[in-house]
Amino acid sequence: MVDGQRGPNVLVTGTPGTGKTSTCALLASATRLNHINIGELVQGLELHDGWDDQLQCLVINEDLVIDHLEEKMSAGGNVVDYHGCDFFPERWFDVVVVLQTKTAVLYDRLSNRGYMDQKLQNNIECEIFQVLLEEARESYNKDIILALPSDTIEDMSNNVGLLKEWLRTNAPSYLID
């Protein structure tokens, strides 16, 4: 675990639609980790600089997010869910999970969410070019990065199992069972 930290912190990242929120929710319910959904946090606490019409999303204020989370992340025991990772301090995370989804599966998921035209294309290209995996590799020690498939419910279950096993080895007090 990170020096001076009382519990583990896990970052789950990936292109929108790869299953980050579902994976984090399942992991949090199976452990003593606190699920932090950055998108909900930003919206609920207005940690943003307004709306981007072109990208159809809030413009996150990274400094406000970091300031808001610093104490909680220092205490540890969190699983963080966000589609970006390069602005979080490297010291926060013990493991960084990049979920990856086949583009046909991702296309269906995002279409079902109502993503249209440019936003849909941008996210598909992001997955094709493995933008989030590269971002993680540039931001964190390669030894803590896990790239995991997230195409099916079985993949999600396997990913949660793998992370529970990681906790069993590194922070058993965070397991419920």
UniProtKB/TrEMBL annotation:
<dbReference type="GO" id="GO:0016887">
    <property type="term" value="F:ATP hydrolysis activity"/>
</dbReference>
<dbReference type="GO" id="GO:0009826">
    <property type="term" value="P:unidimensional cell growth"/>
</dbReference>
<dbReference type="GO" id="GO:0042274">
    <property type="term" value="P:ribosomal small subunit biogenesis"/>
</dbReference>
<dbReference type="GO" id="GO:0005524">
    <property type="term" value="F:ATP binding"/>
</dbReference>
<dbReference type="GO" id="GO:0005737">
    <property type="term" value="C:cytoplasm"/>
</dbReference>
<keyword id="KW-0547">Nucleotide-binding</keyword>
<keyword id="KW-0418">Kinase</keyword>
<feature type="region of interest" description="NMPbind">
    <location>
        <begin position="37"/>
        <end position="60"/>
    </location>
</feature>
<keyword id="KW-0067">ATP-binding</keyword>
<dbReference type="GO" id="GO:0005634">
    <property type="term" value="C:nucleus"/>
</dbReference>
<feature type="binding site">
    <location>
        <position position="21"/>
    </location>
    <ligand>
        <name>ATP</name>
    </ligand>
</feature>
<feature type="binding site">
    <location>
        <position position="113"/>
    </location>
    <ligand>
        <name>ATP</name>
    </ligand>
</feature>
<comment type="similarity">
    <text>Belongs to the adenylate kinase family. AK6 subfamily.</text>
</comment>
<feature type="region of interest" description="LID">
    <location>
        <begin position="112"/>
        <end position="122"/>
    </location>
</feature>
<feature type="binding site">
    <location>
        <position position="22"/>
    </location>
    <ligand>
        <name>ATP</name>
    </ligand>
</feature>
<comment type="function">
    <text>Broad-specificity nucleoside monophosphate (NMP) kinase that catalyzes the reversible transfer of the terminal phosphate group between nucleoside triphosphates and monophosphates. Has also ATPase activity. Involved in the late cytoplasmic maturation steps of the 40S ribosomal particles, specifically 18S rRNA maturation. While NMP activity is not required for ribosome maturation, ATPase activity is. Associates transiently with small ribosomal subunit protein uS11. ATP hydrolysis breaks the interaction with uS11.</text>
</comment>
<feature type="binding site">
    <location>
        <position position="20"/>
    </location>
    <ligand>
        <name>ATP</name>
    </ligand>
</feature>
<keyword id="KW-0698">rRNA processing</keyword>
<keyword id="KW-0690">Ribosome biogenesis</keyword>
<feature type="binding site">
    <location>
        <position position="19"/>
    </location>
    <ligand>
        <name>ATP</name>
    </ligand>
</feature>
<keyword id="KW-0808">Transferase</keyword>
<dbReference type="InterPro" id="IPR020618">
    <property type="entry name" value="Adenyl_kinase_AK6"/>
</dbReference>
<dbReference type="GO" id="GO:0080186">
    <property type="term" value="P:developmental vegetative growth"/>
</dbReference>
<comment type="subunit">
    <text>Interacts with small ribosomal subunit protein uS11. Not a structural component of 43S pre-ribosomes, but transiently interacts with them by binding to uS11.</text>
</comment>
<feature type="binding site">
    <location>
        <position position="17"/>
    </location>
    <ligand>
        <name>ATP</name>
    </ligand>
</feature>
<protein>
    <recommendedName>
        <fullName>Adenylate kinase isoenzyme 6 homolog</fullName>
        <ecNumber>2.7.4.3</ecNumber>
    </recommendedName>
</protein>
<dbReference type="GO" id="GO:0006364">
    <property type="term" value="P:rRNA processing"/>
</dbReference>
<dbReference type="GO" id="GO:0004017">
    <property type="term" value="F:AMP kinase activity"/>
</dbReference>
<keyword id="KW-0963">Cytoplasm</keyword>
<dbReference type="InterPro" id="IPR027417">
    <property type="entry name" value="P-loop_NTPase"/>
</dbReference>
<dbReference type="Pfam" id="PF13238">
    <property type="entry name" value="AAA_18"/>
</dbReference>
<keyword id="KW-0539">Nucleus</keyword>
